[in-house]
Design brief:
Length: about 425
C-alpha cells in the first residue's frame, strides 16, 4: 500500500492529476475495467440535477434501509471528512476500508492519472462491490454526461432540478445544461425528472434515445395540506404521508420524485418504510438549525436557483430580532445571482473567505455586498464571522451561514 494514513492518500490524490476537474469517461472507464468491478445483483440509482441531489440520496437511503435493504451511498462534496462521501448501510466508511479501496484503484491504474473525484468514485464502487450491497446510490458530482459515476448504467436515473451552475463546464443556458444532465439516463430504462418544466432539449433527447421519462406534474405529482401530503403516480397513491424531516417545501418535490424512482425500480417498497424513512432522514448543512443562544441556520446553497429557495424559507420563518448572513463564496460562482436572491431579506452581511484557494477574497466580497439590501458589518475569515456573531447576536436573532460547502463546514465545526 502506498500510504498508511488516509490523510496522506488524500494529499497525494490532490496532486495526482494535472487538472482538478477533467470531465470525461475514457480514463475512469479503462481503470474500472482493469479493476474488474462487478455489480452482481445490485440495483443502481443515479441521482443528478442542479439542487436537491444530496437530499434525494438521503431520502432514498433512509427509505431503503427502513425496508431492510443494504445501501451504498456515494455523494460529494463532504463537509468535514472524506469518509462522509462513502456510506455503507448508513455508516461512513472507515479509514482502513477507504485505504484498501484506494490501493485497489492505484494498483489497477498503471500510468493512467485520475482526478481526485474519479479516484474516489472508483474507490466507492470497489467498496460497494466488495460489501455486496443491495443498492448503489450514486450522486453525480458535476453535470452527468461526462461525470465519473456515469460509467455505470443506472437501473433508474433521477434528475432533481435544472438550473444554471458550473457554466464553464456545462454551458451557459438551461437548454445546454439539461443535455449534460439528462445523459445519465439509459435507453429502455426509466428516468424520473422532478423539474416540472424542463427545457425542450431534454424532452427531445429522451425521445431520441428511447429513455422512459417520468415527468413531475405530468406522470406523478404531490399535494400537501396542514396534516400531511399525498403522492400519486398513475394508479399508485400514498395518502397522509409525514413531511420529510428535511426542512422546506421543495423537499416535498424531492420526496415525490424519490417515491417515483422507487416505484419504477426493481425495489418494491412498503408504505411503512416510506413513512419511517421520511421521518428519520437527516442531512447536515441543508437548512440545518443550531441553537447557539441565537438561531443558526447552515445551508450549503451556492447557486441562484438554490439561494432563491433558501431566501423563501427564511422569509417564511421570520425572527423577532435581526438577521446576519455569514456569506462566503467561491470565485467562480454567480455572485450577482446569489446575492440578488438574498438581498430582499434586508439582513446585515459578514463577508467571509473560507480557507480554500478557490474562495473569493473577503475584501472583494465585502465590496460587492455594499448596498445589497443591508449593511456589511465586517469581513475576514469564517471564524472571524462566527466570533462577531457571538458578540452581537442574542435570543431572537439569527445567523445564516451560506454560499459554499466550505463556508458551512468551517462554521459548523465551531458550533457542533
Amino acid at each position: 500500500m502506498r500510504f498508511s494514513a488516509l490523510d496522506d492518500w488524500l494529499r497525494w490524490l490532490e496532486g495526482l492529476h494535472p487538472r482538478a476537474i477533467d470531465l470525461g469517461l475514457e480514463r475512469v472507464r479503462e481503470v474500472a475495467a482493469r479493476m474488474g468491478l462487478q455489480l452482481g445483483d445490485a440495483v443502481v440509482i443515479t441521482v443528478g440535477g442542479t439542487n436537491g441531489k444530496g437530499s434525494s440520496v438521503a431520502m432514498l437511503d433512509a427509505i431503503l434501509r427502513a425496508d431492510g435493504r443494504t445501501t451504498g451511498c456515494y455523494t460529494s462534496p463532504h463537509l468535514h471528512r472524506f469518509n462522509e462521501r462513502i456510506r455503507i448501510d448508513g455508516v461512513d466508511a472507515d479509514d482502513a476500508s477507504i485505504m484498501a479501496a484506494f490501493a485497489a484503484v492505484d494498483a489497477a491504474r498503471g500510468e493512467t492519472t485520475l482526478s481526485y473525484f474519479e479516484f474516489g468514485t472508483l474507490a466507492a464502487m470497489w467498496l460497494f462491490a466488495r460489501e455486496r450491497v443491495d443498492v448503489w446510490l450514486l450522486e453525480v458530482g458535476l453535470g452527468g454526461r461526462l461525470d465519473a459515476v456515469n460509467i455505470i448504467d443506472a437501473d433508474v436515473a433521477l434528475l432533481t432540478s435544472i438550473g444554471i451552475d458550473h457554466v464553464d463546464y456545462l454551458g451557459q443556458t438551461r437548454a445546454a445544461i439539461a443535455l449534460e444532465k439528462v445523459a445519465i439516463g439509459r435507453p429502455g430504462r426509466p428516468l424520473v425528472c422532478g423539474e416540472r418544466r424542463p427545457p425542450r432539449t431534454l424532452l427531445e433527447f429522451v425521445v431520441e434515445r428511447d429513455i422512459d421519462l417520468r415527468l413531475a406534474g405530468r406522470d406523478f405529482d404531490r399535494r400537501a395540506d396542514a396534516s400531511g401530503w399525498r403522492w400519486w403516480f398513475g394508479s399508485m397513491t400514498l395518502e397522509d404521508l409525514p413531511f420529510p424531516a428535511l426542512a422546506g417545501e421543495h423537499q416535498l418535490d424531492n420526496a415525490a420524485a424519490v417515491l417515483t424512482a422507487l416505484a419504477v425500480s426493481p425495489l418494491p417498497t412498503s408504505r411503512e418504510a416510506v413513512v419511517a424513512g421520511l421521518k428519520t432522514v437527516t442531512l447536515a448543512g441543508r437548512f440545518e438549525r443550531i441553537d447557539a443562544g441565537f438561531d443558526v441556520v447552515l445551508d450549503v446553497t451556492h447557486n441562484p436557483h438554490g439561494m432563491a429557495r433558501l431566501a423563501a424559507m427564511l422569509a417564511a420563518r421570520p425572527v423577532p430580532g435581526r438577521d446576519l448572513i455569514l456569506f462566503g463564496v467561491m470565485a467562480d460562482k454567480d455572485l450577482p445571482g446569489v446575492v440578488a436572491a438574498l438581498a430582499p431579506l434586508g439582513a446585515d452581511w459578514f463577508a467571509a473567505a473560507p480557507a480554500v484557494e478557490r474562495a473569493l477574497p473577503a475584501s472583494a466580497l465585502a465590496a460587492a455586498l455594499e448596498g445589497q439590501g443591508g449593511t456589511v458589518v465586517g469581513w475576514g475569515s469564517v471564524a472571524d464571522g462566527v466570533a462577531l456573531a457571538r458578540r452581537r447576536l442574542g435570543v431572537g436573532d439569527r445567523l445564516i451561514v451560506t454560499g459554499s460547502f466550505h463556508t458551512v463546514a468551517e462554521a459548523r465545526e465551531l458550533f457542533i
